[in-house]
Amino acid sequence: MERKKTMEKRKKKQEESDVNDDPFARFPLDLRIEILMKLPARSIAKLEFVSKVWAPIIRGKEFTDLYMTQPRLLFRVHRQGLHLFHSSSQENPSYDHHDRVSITLDPSLYYVFSPPTHGLICGRKDSKVLIGNPSTGQFITLPRARTRRVGIYSFFGYEPANHVYKVLSMRSIKFSL
């Protein structure tokens, strides 16, 4: 029991030392958030693991909500099986960020990408749906809808009340008059 208390004291003292040695910790919180808001998502993801001062800010709901609501333009160019994503800040057009993202896609299929929804995009082709984060280059293919019907439409959205991304897939109905 005594050993556990000693270890906890050492850990707390080390954490306080780390915070005191970090010059970023001396800035007011609102200034730290403003600095982080100007960085691309990939840099923020790396910074989360660099400092004990930065991590709680970056992981915090307030910062995440602020960062995800920044107005941005997202462009996609498809060339020879690669997708190039380019995002540009509408508030600060002098700072542009682009990433080449290589996605393994069936070259005979043409994916239609939705506009960004809270930082993610959705690519659709028939019953195939993939969701991706162009900032990190991570893309996943969702399981196909279990149906033998053709004409499946998928829609991608974000539910702010529960902070959940959702994909709605439904079959089309053909009317004949």
UniProtKB/TrEMBL annotation:
Residues 26-64 form the F-box domain. Residues 72-173 form the F-box associated beta-propeller type domain. It holds the Pfam family FBA_3. PANTHER family: BNAA05G37150D PROTEIN-RELATED, F-BOX DOMAIN-CONTAINING PROTEIN. This is Uncharacterized protein. It comes from Arabis alpina.
